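agent> Task received from the user: take the single chain below, predict its 3D structure, and emit structure tokens. No templates, no multimer pairing.
agent> Plan: (1) validate residues, (2) run structure prediction, (3) serialize to tokens, (4) report one or two observations.
agent> Step 1 OK, no nonstandard residues flagged.
tool_call: predict_structure(input=
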Amino acid sequence: MIFNLVFFVFGCARNDLSQCETIVTYESFGAGFIKENCQSCHSSLSENRYGAPHNIHFDTEEDVFERLEDIYRVTLSEDADMPPSGGIIEEDRILLELWLTCSEGL
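)
tool_result: status=success, residues=106
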């Protein structure tokens, strides 16, 4: 399974949604990933944001897509430091990279 995901990650050009849209979308992956890994700090409804900037929240798909490059940088780059609870499991890293790389706006 991971091999297939890796193939699609490298086979998908940025902004080429023809291959990607049916594989990993906001609805099929992104929304759940963001809710589980980001919204405890990055929600406008969070009472305790644990130091997260008040202007960065991921309440809607639009909020997420406005920050795709930032999400990529803090979760997948060499300097990744999010989520602060220890990072992301490998399968989610692959899916996240596929989703971010193939999303419009990145």
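agent> Step 4: summary for the user.
The chain has one domain: 2-45+52-102.
agent> Done.
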